[in-house]
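Design a sequence for this backbone.
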């Protein structure tokens, strides 16, 4: 019996020693993976390579390649599809003003993505640029016109410094901060370079709503709704036409107008945070309100203007009736204009900016 006990004790001691070796191996392997990811991340960032940034990274490339400009538009697909820089510039000239503009908005941009572009403008351009921004970014629960699984995003803006913006976007919707914690965890993984390691190992990339066709650069960042990829364009259009009978009722329009016209100071923070970021970069902010039936961007900007009425703004929100909602000749879906509608909005944006310039608002 005693020899059996001795054998078991020896086996236990061997197992413990083996377990310790396995733990050390696992820890060393994890440390090596972290270091490899960190090295890949730093190298890729230094080279300006963000494979998984989608349209956002195409816009950062456009910022570097578009040449000198005085006016930059930032925001989500609302700005991407509704603001044609060439037509804005033409309207400025017609009204007796000068300026060259570039559209750096991207589809599906969250508020931290918009902040990233604002920071890039401040870092790459002389101070004093006019930066025209929406009042908020994209939120997943607000998507009603995109096919399932068509969400977009970018690891390029996963930085802890953007956490206050993420929290602001959650707070104006009355949402819990669990998503903010998830963002912080993703930011930590990004800082450690794990996403680069996944790329190096050939992990599947994300699927994006838009690619960056050559016309994105020839049109200075503008991409009309009709120029989107067919599978997404067709889905959004069909969904809009299906909803048209409900959208065309006086009750639906009255409800959308009430959301814009009812003071709600607690919903202003995202717009104010973006304005402060533009100002901190030495540039001049302008709030842009575009006609959209769903979403928070125009609501946030309208409430920001109530708190800071001196802020320059071009207000083309739904209740200003710059386009007849929901006329499908002018609206491609609930939140985006057709090419015909975008031409009207772009001219109104240019005229509005010129009016601000002449009145001393800019």
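Sequence:
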């Amino acid at each position: 019996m005693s020899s059996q006990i001795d054998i078991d004790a020896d086996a236990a001691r061997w197992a413990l020693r083996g377990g310790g070796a396995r733990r050390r191996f696992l820890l060393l392997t994890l440390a090596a993976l972290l270091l490899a990811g960190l090295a890949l991340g730093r190298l890729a960032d230094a080279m300006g390579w963000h494979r998984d940034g989608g349209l956002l990274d195409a816009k950062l490339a456009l910022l570097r390649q578009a040449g000198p400009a005085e006016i930059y538009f930032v925001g989500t697909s609302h700005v991407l599809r509704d603001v044609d820089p060439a037509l804005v510039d033409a309207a400025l000239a017609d009204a007796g003003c000068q300026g060259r503009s570039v559209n750096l908005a991207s589809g599906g941009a969250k508020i931290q993505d918009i902040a990233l572009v604002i920071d890039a403008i401040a870092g790459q351009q002389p101070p004093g640029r006019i930066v025209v921004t929406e009042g908020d970014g994209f939120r997943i629960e607000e998507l009603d016109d995109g096919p399932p699984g068509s969400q977009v995003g970018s690891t390029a803006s996963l930085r802890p410094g953007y956490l206050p913006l993420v929290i602001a976007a959650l707070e104006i919707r009355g949402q819990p901060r669990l998503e903010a914690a998830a963002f912080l965890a993703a930011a930590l993984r990004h800082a450690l370079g794990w996403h680069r390691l996944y790329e190096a190992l050939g992990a599947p990339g994300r699927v994006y709503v838009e690619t960056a066709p050559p016309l994105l650069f020839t049109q200075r960042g503008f991409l009309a709704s009709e120029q989107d990829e067919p599978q997404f364009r067709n889905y959004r259009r069909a969904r809009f036409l299906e909803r048209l009978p409900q959208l065309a009722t006086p009750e639906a329009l009255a409800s959308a107008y009430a959301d814009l016209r009812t003071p709600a100071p607690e919903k202003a923070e995202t717009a104010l945070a973006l304005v402060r970021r533009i100002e901190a970069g030495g540039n001049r902010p302008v709030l842009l309100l575009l006609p959209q039936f769903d979403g928070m961007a125009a609501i946030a900007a309208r409430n920001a203007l109530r708190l800071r009425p001196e802020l320059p703004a071009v207000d083309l929100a739904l209740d200003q009736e710059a386009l007849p909602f929901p006329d499908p000749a002018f609206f491609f879906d609930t939140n985006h204009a057709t090419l015909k509608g975008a031409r009207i909005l772009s001219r109104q944006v240019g005229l509005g900016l010129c009016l601000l310039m002449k009145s001393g608002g800019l």
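Residues 2-46 form the longest helix (45 residues).
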